[in-house]
């Protein structure tokens, strides 16, 4: 007796499982593949109407108006039903399964309409019209194979009725006997089978392409997340390395020690260049690299490039010749992205010096009136007397992660990203980059970009003294002891008064009890992060809500700066610390204090 309830229980579970499987099967058949078929049906409505019009005319000529016009009314009803069903599926409202069933009903109506068309021709007393009927049946099946293959149920409802009729009507009404009948039936079965197989192959190919597309999107997202994570993880220790090196350089050092520190900074900057190149190429591929628009002095920009590379050229026994020519009528002041323009010049000069061993490198920068008023055509020409390149090497030159020769990376280093980034930046500035080179005889790179001519800013007429940050009271909220030490060393060397907080909660507590001029706030901290601390500060929970708060972060992906500024930070400083940029931001906090009524975002 005890086994009976158990058996009944198993039976009920099995029945429930079967019902669940049936429900899952129904759900699978009524999935979003029907939505794709409906979208295609909506897009091809005009094509179906265009085909139906001459069909009605020919039907009237062959079968008479009394047959053609009723068929046209039936066709119009089916198309109107399909039009409404397609629109209903697109609307985001409950009852999607019922709306999909409604579309399948309209699909059946369209199929029945064209099967009726084919049957009417098949029953006509003419061999030519019989062929027309067979062609119409096949056309309906092909239509199902081309447009409904994504959904098995839609494909079955559109293709099964004509497949059955195209075989049944010759068999029942064709008047064929013996071998001719077998031949006709076998041929039609093979045709139906071929159309079904073609639909299956097309469905599998589409699924493979969609799966590959999903995998590519997932892979790209994973790559972006990996780059963001690696950028953050690398910038944090590099902040300690470069920050301490910059602080050490400000102390009394012997010439040998100064050279060692300079080598340390140069090597760290080289590593950061590689990291920034990886981030730049990722931003370019994602279409998220934006250009600034601000006024800059072309002469000053080129002068800084010359200062940067003069010592490197001397060490490599290369004569660095820099020339700037600005045509009459073109201001030396231009509007654009000076950082990216400097990046292009720096990369070209770096490559020219890297691949030169002696000789000279000539850098020519010219500005001429552009094709339109208000524009200047800036041409940058960098010529070297280095190893040069063959035509095959030049063809691969601007491909990301590619260098002219595999041995180049081993001999000279580099990632092969710099020139690819330069070309993309030139394109973004409505320009291009070209190269002429001959193996063993050097190379000439020519970059042209279009920039807006600008007026000299008022402060350009005289040098304004930078505000002193001596005695500036700075609160640094940072949980990493190394980063704390770096910030303290750099800021105290300039005379600032520095206090530390280990997280956002501690920062708020110190702001309640002490007066500060500016806060340097790490974004990611335990217990309370910088975003939450900023929100509470702006809400008036600690100290002055209008105090300047500078985001201090290792997040350097595209859009991060805009996101932090939108949250309510007044400026952003990325790790590793760049002393000049940090001191400039601190000076800006005194030059343009925040308004107490300035809007603030509540959350990230």
Describe the fold and architecture:
With about 600 residues, this protein is α/β, with parallel strands linked by helices. It is built from 19 helices and twelve strands. The strands form two sheets. Strands 1, 2, 3, 4, 5, 6 and 7 form a seven-stranded mixed beta sheet that branches. Strands 9-8-10-11-12 form a five-stranded parallel beta sheet, with helices on both faces. Residues about 1-25, about 405-415, about 460-465 and about 595-604 have low confidence and may be disordered.
Strand content: 5-15%
Shape: elongated
Structural class: alpha/beta
Tell me the radius of gyration. Answer: 37 Å
Report, as a whole number of angstroms, the end-to-end distance.
Answer: 65 Å
Helix proportion of residues, in percent? 55-70%
* Number of helices, counting only DSSP H or I runs of 4 residues or more: 19
Q: What do the pLDDT scores average to?
A: 79
Q: How many extended strands?
A: 12
Biggest beta sheet attributes: 7 strands, mixed
Unreliable stretches: 1-26, 406-413, 461-467, 595-604
Summarize this, please?
The protein has helices spanning 3-29, 33-43, 45-63, 65-90, 96-122, 127-147, 152-173, 178-249, 255-286, 298-315, 338-354, 391-395, 406-412, 418-428, 481-493, 504-513, 530-538, 560-567, 579-591; strands at residues 294-297, 319-326, 333-336, 360-369, 375-384, 432-437, 443-453, 473-477, 497-501, 518-522, 548-553, 571-574.
